[in-house]
TrEMBL record:
<comment type="pathway">
    <text>Pyrimidine metabolism; UMP biosynthesis via salvage pathway; UMP from uracil: step 1/1.</text>
</comment>
<keyword id="KW-0547">Nucleotide-binding</keyword>
<dbReference type="Pfam" id="PF14681">
    <property type="entry name" value="UPRTase"/>
</dbReference>
<keyword id="KW-0021">Allosteric enzyme</keyword>
<protein>
    <recommendedName>
        <fullName>uracil phosphoribosyltransferase</fullName>
        <ecNumber>2.4.2.9</ecNumber>
    </recommendedName>
</protein>
<dbReference type="InterPro" id="IPR029057">
    <property type="entry name" value="PRTase-like"/>
</dbReference>
<dbReference type="GO" id="GO:0004845">
    <property type="term" value="F:uracil phosphoribosyltransferase activity"/>
</dbReference>
<comment type="similarity">
    <text>Belongs to the UPRTase family.</text>
</comment>
<feature type="domain" description="Phosphoribosyltransferase">
    <location>
        <begin position="28"/>
        <end position="231"/>
    </location>
</feature>
<dbReference type="InterPro" id="IPR000836">
    <property type="entry name" value="PRTase_dom"/>
</dbReference>
<keyword id="KW-0808">Transferase</keyword>
<keyword id="KW-0342">GTP-binding</keyword>
<keyword id="KW-0328">Glycosyltransferase</keyword>
<dbReference type="GO" id="GO:0005525">
    <property type="term" value="F:GTP binding"/>
</dbReference>
Length: 235
């Protein structure tokens, strides 16, 4: 696994920082970002603060992911009659959240790109086989002409991510046009994705220490979807 980062959450100077390329983009581990993580990882964080704080991190992730997409030259006339030689996206953008947790990231993408098109993929783990199973997908007919941000806040074992990537590839999306955007990543999940798709880009705000025997990330955050949507409240 190779990363572009300053320091992973829970990871300091190990071999994962020795070789870096363009496949894993870890947000700079600033004190501000670590403070935001401290809030949302706290088991006593209330719903309102969890939603607001995670939204601030997600916006940073989306901004980073958007910067990875292809751009082309675009000149505009400024108010003083001069030409500014700028840039514009080379392809239209489509966001594809993995339902349900990935929908937490949809709002921030829409806030930055109000006209963005949104697809949906629903994948759940089969209770018998323990393998990811596709239950539903709704994607733009011309998604193969788009740059796609695949949105899911948790990358643990990598099974769901791989299944979602296969759905996009089956609809004609080029691997180079996919950026996987995730809040937390386990090393095992990153390795699983890159074992099959070595050049697929991943944007994350933290790389965890490991998965435990139940495939939960350590130190972790719990079930992000339940906490974000308020369905983790005990009876």
């Amino acid at each position: 696994m190779t990363i572009m980062a300053t320091e992973a959450a829970g990871i300091t100077n190990d071999t994962r920082n020795d070789t870096r390329n363009d496949t894993v983009h870890l947000l700079p581990q600033t004190r501000q970002l670590r403070a935001l993580h401290t809030i949302i990882r706290d088991r006593n964080c209330d719903l309102e603060r969890f939603v607001t704080t995670s939204g601030r991190i997600i916006r940073q992730l989306v901004e980073t992911a958007l910067d990875l997409l292809p751009f082309e030259p675009s000149g505009v006339q400024t108010p003083v009659g001069q030409t500014y030689h700028g840039l514009r996206p080379a392809k239209p953008i489509c966001g594809v959240p993995v339902v349900r947790a990935g929908e937490s990231m949809e709002h921030e993408l829409r806030a930055m790109s109000p006209g963005v098109r949104i697809g949906k993929i629903l994948i759940q783990r089969d209770k018998v086989t323990k393998l990811p199973r596709l239950y539903y997908s709704a994607l733009p007919a011309d998604i193969d002409r788009h740059s796609v941000l695949l949105l899911d806040p948790m990358l643990a074992t990598g099974g769901t991510a791989l299944a979602a990537i296969e759905v996009l590839l089956a609809h004609g999306v080029a691997e180079d046009d996919i950026v996987f955007v995730t809040l937390l990543s386990a090393p095992e999940g990153i390795d699983a994705v890159h074992a099959r798709h070595p050049n697929l880009r991943i944007v994350t705000s933290a790389i965890e220490e490991r998965l435990n025997e139940n495939a939960y990330m350590i130190p972790g955050i719990g079930d992000f979807g339940d906490r974000y949507f308020g369905t983790d409240v005990p009876r």
